Structure to design on (282 residues):
């Protein structure tokens, strides 16, 4: 438990530093850049997923400043669910904002550690990620709550393993309320858990899908099959198939037949010497 306390203390220090930096931006500078205030009790708008049927089902897109729950369709789809969660976090996070990922160490043992090359392949600069890894699920939820209350963050991913008793309806409602107040979008990733009633705005089931090859038979964009299991303000929907475009940081509908002349070029990842490792809290 002493290790968990030290990690939580380190996370609080990092969050305090982020908030201090955000508050130090002069209001005039923030206004001239066209961005929202660094600390805000609301972050209006929605996250566009496909600008089509999915967004229509969601009432205009995925709600910001809310809690969203993500499940894998099977154990083999845990990696796809993790990738989808990160893609949503990237789509939700304003430019320059840090993403915090709080995960239980058993999730890493079962599903694998996060790898900087894989994160960068999805469009995340590893230096923009704070990774918090804890043994106890209660500590994971506490750290996730600390991060959710920080309005200077871009997004938060909380990943406990299985079905801990501490993650009850009351805890989920607290996450939802904290996200609403801070404006930070929170993604509750649930490896090893069954979809059950809870306090999330939406609940998703994710499965991996074959990617459509690009020019010269190059690997295509990461592709996901997603089903909306629950929507607080409307009916469920899906399944749908979407690709993730790392360069545009947005989802798009797969194109079955691609004309090489119209293909967008994916920039290669930087040389290893140019990459910065993601930051560990603790």
């Amino acid at each position: 438990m002493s290790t968990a306390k030290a990690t939580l203390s380190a996370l609080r220090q990092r969050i305090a530093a982020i908030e201090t930096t955000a508050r130090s931006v002069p209001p005039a500078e923030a206004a001239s850049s066209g961005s929202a205030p660094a600390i805000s009790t609301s972050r209006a708008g929605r996250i566009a997923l496909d600008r089509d049927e999915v967004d229509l089902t969601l009432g205009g897109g995925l709600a910001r400043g809310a809690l969203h729950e993500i499940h894998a369709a099977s154990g083999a789809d845990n990696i796809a669910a993790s990738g989808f969660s990160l893609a949503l976090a990237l789509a939700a996070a304003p430019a320059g904002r840090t993403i915090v990922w709080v995960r239980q160490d058993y999730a890493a043992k079962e599903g694998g550690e996060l790898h900087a090359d894989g994160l960068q392949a999805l469009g995340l600069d590893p230096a923009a990620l704070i990774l918090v890894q804890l043994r106890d699920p209660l500590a994971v939820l506490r750290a996730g709550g600390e991060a959710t209350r920080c309005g200077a963050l871009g997004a938060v991913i909380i990943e406990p393993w299985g079905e801990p008793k501490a993650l009850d309806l009351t805890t989920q409602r607290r996450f939802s309320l904290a996200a609403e107040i801070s404006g930070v979008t929170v993604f509750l990733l649930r490896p090893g858990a069954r979809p059950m009633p809870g306090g999330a705005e939406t609940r998703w089931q994710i499965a991996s899908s074959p990617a459509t090859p690009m020019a010269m038979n190059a690997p295509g964009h990461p592709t996901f099959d997603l089903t909306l299991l629950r929507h607080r303000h409307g009916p469920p929907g899906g399944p749908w198939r979407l690709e993730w475009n790392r360069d545009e940081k947005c989802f798009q509908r797969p194109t079955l037949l691609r004309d090489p002349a119209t293909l967008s070029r994916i920039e290669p990842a930087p040389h290893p010497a140019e990459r910065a490792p993601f930051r560990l809290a603790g």
Summary: The longest helix spans residues 2-23. The radius of gyration is 18 Å. Residues 2-15+48-255+275-280 form a domain with the Rossmann fold fold (CATH 3.40.50.300).
